[in-house]
Amino acid sequence: MSVHSISASDALAQLDRFSAVIDARSESEYAHDRLPGAVNWPSLNDEERARVGTLYKQVNPFEARKLGAALVSRNIASHIERDAMDKPKSWQPLVYCWRGGQRSGALSLVLGQIGFRVTLIEGGYKAFRTAMRDDLPAQAARLRYRVVCGPTGSGKTRLLHALRDAGAQVLDLEDLASHRASVLGLIPGRPQPSQKHFEMRVWDTLRSFDAARTVYVEAESKKVGNCTLPDALIDAMRASPCVRVELSDDERVTLLLEDYPFFVSDPVFFCQRLDTLVALRGHAVIDDWKAQVAAGRTEAVVRDLLARHYDPGYATSTRRNFAQFDQALVAPLTDRSPPALAQAAHAILQSDSAALASA
Of the N and C termini of the chain, which has fewer Cβ atoms inside 10 Å? Predict the structure, then answer.
């Protein structure tokens, strides 16, 4: 049998060398959080776990173990028939469950008996997450950042994408959090990850970056929707050099209408999001905005949102949170078009290269 175990810290360091990462937990555990790139081969699914647990409590552990063994054996057979029949003998999976116990052990036993070289994580997912959280501050601290600042609708996210297209390293926190960060930033049909999985995504992205090259990241508050940024990352960002994006108000309004199509296509949902601002703006303002949306004057509402809600405290807040904001490299955009964004990205990269060369 070819099964051996490694510590969570070793699994962390060697994660990319395995042919596959297999999560033997149930589908709901897997959905909540999982190792980067992991596929789900449940030894017991949610319904089966509940059945075994009920039998354990209401009858006795022996009867529960018999049922569990039958269900696990059937599931492992299905996984092998569906996903392992085409694997060569050189295939080397990393397998884990919650604590590295019976569920991953049973799957590993069978895979090892076949002849695959199987590796188990000692302590399972729980130990790996602890090791990941311990490593996250070091991953955040080893990198050099340039923070893209600018008022709402100025094209910060589009500029990040243009920087990525130009070959830069980009940390897109809003994409990792599935949220556009503002109060209205909920993305319809795209739920946010759990806090645990957001942290796993951030760690996995940070570890992929080359410390010799700058990482470009958008200025964010402590939270992106319901996801909280790791302290070490937000501290590093707030101490880093900045880029300040500038775009005309007319272009900003049009950009927001493009980036948030539900403002126009789903006025009911838009009005529901506006309701979240009642505590800040009062019922009279929100009711007026909702009436304008109902009348088809969504563009006027977006313009008013910028003038009355987003813009007033922008510079003060950014200056307070980002120490080098006043020395920011200015990136003026002639418009929101891809050529203008590409030109700005090129200028930023040239400026940063010149600064590094003279350092």
Answer: C
Residues 110 and 214 reside in one and the same domain: no
348: containing domain = 142-358
Q: In this structure, are 123 and 224 located in the same domain?
A: no
Q: Which residues are catalytic?
A: 97
As to burial, measured by CB atoms within 10 angstroms (0-12 exposed, 13-18 middle, 19+ buried), residue 143 is: buried
What is the mean pLDDT for each group of 10 consecutive residues in the chain (359 residues)?
Answer: 92 98 98 98 97 96 95 98 97 96 94 97 98 98 98 96 98 94 76 97 98 96 95 98 97 95 89 91 94 95 93 90 96 97 97 80
One DSSP character per residue, 86-144 reads T--TT--EEEE-SSSSHHHHHHHHHHHHHT--EEEETTHHHHHHHHHHHHHHHHHHTSE
* Cα–Cα distances in angstroms (integers) from residue 327 to residues 2, 10, 220, 354, in the given order: 58, 42, 18, 16
